[in-house]
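Entry 12.
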Amino acid sequence: MSEQPGCLLVVTRLWRVAAAALLVAGSRLGAQATRLDVSGSPGNLAVTSAPAGFQPAAVIDASTQYSVRVHGGTKKITAELSAPMPAGVSLTVTLSAVSGGTSAGPVTLDTTPRDVVVNLSNGADLSATITYQLTTTTEAGIVAAQSRTVTFSLVNYP
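Predicted 3D structure (C-alpha cells):
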C-alpha cells in the first residue's frame, strides 16, 4: 500500500463570555472583569499520508494559549465546533489547567458545547496552553481541505 493523502483542517478560534458576565464587567468591575482571551489560531492541521498498513499519525498543535480572569462566582470554559467533522476525522482539544481550575483533559469536539476546564474561581489573570489534535482513519480516505471554528465560552459552573 502506498502513502495516501489525508486531510487538511484550518482551525480558527472564537471566544465569548456569557452575557451576564459582560454586563457586570462593563458596568462596575473595571480591572476585575471576568474575561477569557485566546492568543490566536493554531496553524493548519494537515494529515498528508499514512504508512502502508498503519493509521495516519495524528497532527498536534500546541502553539496557542488562553488566559482567564474570574470575578464573582465559579465558571467553566466550554468548546464547540462550528460544523461537524467529516466521517473518520476528529478534532480533540486539551486546555491545560490553570491554578484553581480543573482540566477535562483531551475532549473530542463536535457542535455541542463540551466542558474543557471547570471549577474556575475568583483570581488574577491565569494563562495555560491549548493543544489541538487532528486524527483521521484510513477509512476517511482523501478529505478535501476544510475549516472549522472552535468557539470557547466562559460560563457559570456548575
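Annotation: The mean pLDDT is 80. The two ends are 50 Å apart (CA to CA).
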